[in-house]
Amino acid sequence: MSYEIKDPLWTGNYYNEGMDPEVFDKLKEECGVFGVFGHAEASFLSYYGLHSLQHRGQESAGICTSDGSQFHYHRGMGLVKETFENDKLLDLAGSIGIGHVRYSTSGESGINNAQPLVFKYKEGDLALATNGNLVNAPELRKKLEQLGSIFQTSSDTEVVAHLIARSKHEKLEDAVKEALQQVEGAFAFLFMTQHKLIAALDPHGLRPFSMGKLGDAFLFTSETCAFDAVGATAIRDLNPGEMIIIDENGMREDRFSEPKQRALCSMEYIYFARPDSDIENNNIHTVRKQMGRQLATEAFTDADVVTGVPDSSISAAIGFAEQTGIPYELGLIKNRYTGRTFIQPNQELREQGVKMKLSAVGKVVEGKRVIMIDDSIVRGTTSKRIVNLLREAGATEVHVRITSPPFQNPCFYGIDTPSREELIASAKKVEEIRQTINADSLYFLSQEGLVKSIGKNVETHGMCFACFDEKYPTNVPSC
Q1: CA–CA distance, 328 with 316 (Å, rounded to integer)
Q2: Same-fold call for 31-260 versus 268-469
Q3: Keyword Glycosyltransferase, does the record have it (predicted)?
Q4: What are φ and ψ of residue 358, in 5° steps?
Q5: Domain 31-260 carries which CATH code?
Q6: What is residue 420's predicted lDDT score, i.e. its pLDDT?
Q7: What is the pLDDT of residue 357?
Q8: Set 31, 64, 225, 479: catalytic member
Q9: pLDDT at site 104
Q10: First and final CA of the chain: distance in angstroms?
Q11: pLDDT score recorded for residue 29
Q12: In the Cβ-directed half-sphere of 415, how many Cα atoms lie within 13 Å?
């Protein structure tokens, strides 16, 4: 048998470039940041921290350090281990550093947009990195260009750098305050000069951002799992509108804005954060197990085995199984090494795509009624393929349970989501989605059940559910 290989899924030079969204129909990760102040091996700590945050962005990675007199930095396209192979880390001297992993949600994919971004500033060098998205960046960019600013990237992060550069304030922290007061959206920022590190969280607290310590060194990260990787201890989460400044005079707590209604992204609990991370003292694995238990309470159905779609749904599947007494089994196995060899020879073999990413364990599901737990349904294409995988492996019934409400609205805060027209739940009712994905039954966790699972009082702690209920905490573009 021979065939012509055409239309490759892997069309670029690095992981995720040219990936077909129709094949892996999952929400794309945001970004991750990691910062160090006061440790002689800041670059190595940043490397291990970013490696722990790799799930938040696989498109590019970068680290910038300061030795007290000058910056040393390196950025590259691809995974952390690919970007910093050989002796790159040895060249990044200094006790202050910030690092970044990126998946582009705004701006083009390319080395120019890889972070940290480094600029010349009136006080010296300035490096910055962020996780999130600025919803008013296009408006600010246009205004700045009219005033003479020349942009080197298409990233919304550069807008903040230009706002800082144009500030008349002498102190960097005052210029940062002024800049952040002009932007709107979700952001966890790290700013660095030769002698100073500044961390800031948006007024709604949309993105997770934590501070920790390793000896006398201060660390900042998008997820606490990065602290575990370097042996650091988490101190606390940053508060909405807060700005922390660290220099030779020590650490100072300040703020650039009064806190607004707390609106932490609910998808961090559902999908993005690693199970070993903690957010607001809630362990992600424990919360997801509770989501599974809540699903079992809301939508029990009799079956022989429960399985989860790796990796984000495993915890919930365990919770569902514990609640119902139905055995949990590894019915689906994830292949973690599909990146550079992923091809799509022709239309007839297009369906092989999901089989290279996931495999059904035939001896586990054959002749069984299977409950399949997943975190979300976006377009529906992947859900259909996974259901069919289980059927092909011999499952007699496939019941799908989703640990989030129907995903109906696009996100403007740093999650790369399709347009509303491409979101299957915005156009179809649950029964129509069930038919589309070829499941025997389908149930989405209720929003009330999600809140109960997380265990936070939304009125006091606050969360963003805009992708489910369209209640955006800030002004957003028309969609």
Answers
A1: 11
A2: no
A3: yes
A4: -130, 145
A5: 3.60.20.10
A6: 86
A7: 78
A8: 31
A9: 59
A10: 48
A11: 55
A12: 23
- Give the separation between CA 255 and CA 246, rounded to whole angstroms: 14
What's the whole-model pTM score? 0.89
Known binding residues for [4Fe-4S] cluster are 265, 411, 464, 467
The reported pLDDT for the residue numbered 154 is 86
The two three-digit tokens of residue 369, written as one number:
């009624």
**Could you give the residue ranges of the DSSP H alpha helices within 147-203?**
157-166, 172-180
**What is the rounded radius of gyration, in angstroms, for the C-alpha atoms of the chain?**
23
Q: What token pair was written down for 98?
A: 């910030």
Counting every residue written for the chain, the total comes to 479
The reported pLDDT for the residue numbered 26 is: 61
Q: What is the DSSP string of 212-257?
A: EEETTEEEEESSTHHHHHHT-EEEEEPPTTEEEEEETTEEEEEESS
Whether 31 is a known active-site residue: answer: yes
**Which amino acids are annotated as binding site, given as ranges?**
265, 312, 374-375, 411, 464, 467
* Residues of the chain below pLDDT 70: 1-30, 104-109, 337-356, 418, 457-461, 478-479
Q: Are 332 and 309 a contacting pair, CB within 8 Å? A: yes
Instruction: Name, in order, each residue with C-beta under 8 angstroms of 312's C-beta and a sequence gap of 6 or more.
Output: 270, 271, 288, 375
Domain residue spans of the chain: 31-260, 268-469
Q: Which residues are annotated as a binding site for Mg(2+)?
A: 312, 374-375
Q: Which CATH architecture best describes the domain 268-469?
A: 3-Layer(aba) Sandwich (3.40)
Output b/e per residue, 232-262; b: 16+ Cβ within 10 A: bebeebbbbbbbbbbbeeeeeeebbbebeeb
pLDDT at position 63: 98
Report d(CA 92, CA 73) in Å as an integer.
6
